[in-house]
From TrEMBL:
SUPFAM superfamilies: Chorismate lyase-like (SSF64288), Winged helix' DNA-binding domain (SSF46785). The lineage of its organism: Bacteria, Pseudomonadati, Pseudomonadota, Alphaproteobacteria, Hyphomicrobiales. InterPro entries: Bact_HTH_transcr_reg, Chorismate_lyase_/UTRA_dom_sf, Tscrpt_reg_HTH_GntR, UTRA, WH-like_DNA-bd_sf, WH_DNA-bd_sf. Keywords: DNA-binding, Transcription, Transcription regulation. Residues 12-80 form the HTH gntR-type domain. PANTHER family: MANNOSYL-D-GLYCERATE TRANSPORT/METABOLISM SYSTEM REPRESSOR MNGR-RELATED (PTHR44846), MANNOSYL-D-GLYCERATE TRANSPORT_METABOLISM SYSTEM REPRESSOR MNGR-RELATED (PTHR44846:SF1). It comes from Mesorhizobium retamae. This is GntR family transcriptional regulator. Coiled coil: none annotated.
Amino acid sequence: FASLKQASQSGAPLYLQLRRSIEDAVNRGLIGPGDALPSERDIASMADISRVTVRKAVQDLVKGGVLVQRHGSGTFVAPRMERVEQSLSRLTSFTEDMARRGKVVRSTWLDRGLYAPSPEEMMVLGLAASEMVARVARLRIANDTPLAIERASLSASALPDPSVVSSSLYAALEETGNRPVRAVQRISAVNLNEADARLLDAPTGSASLRIERISYLASGKVIEFTRSVYRGDAYDFVAELRLGV
Ligand code: GLP
């Protein structure tokens, strides 16, 4: 911080210079996850700049997820997310994936009910307009960290009472012999919108992965159409590739 006043000759606004120097310190590991930042007043006096300028830089970094503020105790470097390495070659459920890692799974229900299908659901699930669709939408949480939002649609004939899904959708489908055996998954990059960011406890606009899964029964019938948003800082998707054309 001490060099800031001198550096200010460079022309960039002071708050931006301070923001960069804090980011730099975090990236170079000079301050690590969980470390406390000096108080606003101390930074202001060290860098010889106003507290308003310090506050602006700090707020920017809080919004960007680099720092976190805890009321009453100060400002800290944000904890680094432990990343999940997820294989793309097996058709598993979220509950199974997390259980294998010894994590405790919990979900917050966003929706669970029967509806008239949207045109897209009719098309993907092969439903007639007179049929119903079962929607199961959840915020998926592992060890108290929200990792993904999953919105699944299924034909009501496969899941006539969505309230039977207590924790695992695939476990509920397995009970009625409707567990999918094959799926096609599409992964695309998106920036989190405000509502999803709030649910995932991540900054609005931060990187995330949209995952669409269409899964099939052995008969070839589509059983599940799920759209999910996964936190970009929490997942690595890994696939094994073999020589071929
Ligand atoms: C994964 C898939 C979803 C699937 C879910 C089932 O997360 N992306 O498409 O619906 O697993 O998980 P569970 O059985 O834990 O509800």
